[in-house]
Automatic annotation (TrEMBL):
<keyword id="KW-0378">Hydrolase</keyword>
<keyword id="KW-0718">Serine biosynthesis</keyword>
<keyword id="KW-0028">Amino-acid biosynthesis</keyword>
<dbReference type="InterPro" id="IPR004469">
    <property type="entry name" value="PSP"/>
</dbReference>
<dbReference type="GO" id="GO:0006564">
    <property type="term" value="P:L-serine biosynthetic process"/>
</dbReference>
<comment type="pathway">
    <text>Amino-acid biosynthesis; L-serine biosynthesis; L-serine from 3-phospho-D-glycerate: step 3/3.</text>
</comment>
<keyword id="KW-0479">Metal-binding</keyword>
<dbReference type="Pfam" id="PF12710">
    <property type="entry name" value="HAD"/>
</dbReference>
<dbReference type="InterPro" id="IPR023214">
    <property type="entry name" value="HAD_sf"/>
</dbReference>
<keyword id="KW-0460">Magnesium</keyword>
<dbReference type="InterPro" id="IPR050582">
    <property type="entry name" value="HAD-like_SerB"/>
</dbReference>
<dbReference type="GO" id="GO:0005737">
    <property type="term" value="C:cytoplasm"/>
</dbReference>
<dbReference type="GO" id="GO:0036424">
    <property type="term" value="F:L-phosphoserine phosphatase activity"/>
</dbReference>
<protein>
    <recommendedName>
        <fullName>phosphoserine phosphatase</fullName>
        <ecNumber>3.1.3.3</ecNumber>
    </recommendedName>
</protein>
<dbReference type="InterPro" id="IPR036412">
    <property type="entry name" value="HAD-like_sf"/>
</dbReference>
<comment type="similarity">
    <text>Belongs to the HAD-like hydrolase superfamily. SerB family.</text>
</comment>
<dbReference type="GO" id="GO:0000287">
    <property type="term" value="F:magnesium ion binding"/>
</dbReference>
Length: 213
C-alpha cells in the first residue's frame, strides 16, 4: 500500500496541554477571575479573539519575567499527547502546534518533542518585566488556518491529508480547511463544525481515528 504522509496540527491550551497558560500567568498577577471570564467568552465565540487576548495580556502588566519559567514548569501534557507525537514521527508523519497562547511558555516542550512546525504569540518583556503587550502579529483563527496551509506545504503534505484538532472558536478556520477535523472536549460550536469528536481527557484515540492504527 502506498504511504500517504499526514500532517496533524493541534491547538495547544486545553488540547495538547491540560491548562490554559494565560490563566496560570493571571493567577500570579492576582487577576485570575477577570482573565478566566474573558477566556470563556472568547472560546464560545462571543468575543473577537485578538481583542480578548490583548485585554487579557494587558492585565499581566508588571509581572516579572521569572513567572514565565515558573509557568513552563506548571504546564502538563494532555494524556496521550507525547505518544501521539512520537508515533506520528516514527511513522514518517508531521506534527504542528498552533497556539493563541505564548511561545514563551511552550518553547521547551516543543524542543523536547522535536516538533518542527509551530506558531504562537510572543509576550513583550522590557527590563525583565511583562509590559502587558505582545510582540508581532496575533495568532488568531485566520492565522491558525494560514499556518495549516504553510506547514502542509513545508512538510510536503496535501491539504486533503491534513488533520486539525482543537477545542475553541479560535480553531474553527483551520478545522474548516483541514482534510479531517477533530473536536477535543470542545465547545458546542466546535463539535458541530467538526468531522469527529473526542469526549475524554486523552488524545490516545487520535491515531486510530485518523486511520493509522
Amino acid at each position: 500500500m502506498q504511504f500517504v504522509k499526514r500532517l496533524v496540527q493541534l491547538d495547544v491550551d486545553s488540547t495538547f496541554i491540560q491548562q490554559e497558560a494565560i490563566e496560570l500567568l493571571a493567577a500570579k498577577a492576582g487577576v485570575f477571575d477577570e482573565v478566566s471570564d474573558i477566556t470563556e467568552s472568547a472560546m464560545r465565540g462571543e468575543l473577537d479573539f485578538e481583542q480578548s487576548l490583548r485585554a487579557r495580556v494587558s492585565l499581566l502588566k508588571g509581572l516579572p519575567e521569572s513567572v514565565i519559567t515558573e509557568v513552563q514548569q506548571e504546564i502538563t501534557l494532555t494524556d496521550g499527547a507525547q505518544d501521539l507525537v512520537n508515533t506520528l514521527h516514527s511513522k514518517g508523519h508531521s506534527v504542528a502546534l498552533v497556539s493563541g497562547g505564548f511561545i514563551d511558555i511552550i518553547e521547551p516542550m516543543i524542543r523536547s518533542l522535536s516538533i518542527k512546525y509551530y506558531k504562537a504569540n510572543k509576550l513583550e518583556v522590557v527590563g525583565g518585566v511583562l509590559t502587558g503587550q505582545l510582540n508581532g502579529p496575533v495568532i488568531d483563527r485566520a492565522a491558525k488556518a494560514a499556518a495549516l496551509h504553510e506547514f502542509s506545504k513545508a512538510s510536503g503534505v496535501d491539504m486533503e491529508n491534513t488533520v486539525a484538532i482543537g477545542d475553541g472558536a479560535n480553531d474553527l478556520d483551520m478545522m474548516a480547511i483541514a482534510g479531517l477535523s477533530i473536536a477535543f472536549n470542545a465547545k458546542p460550536i466546535v463539535v458541530d463544525a467538526a468531522n469527529l469528536a473526542i469526549n475524554e481527557p486523552s488524545l490516545s484515540s487520535v491515531i486510530e481515528l485518523i486511520g493509522l492504527k
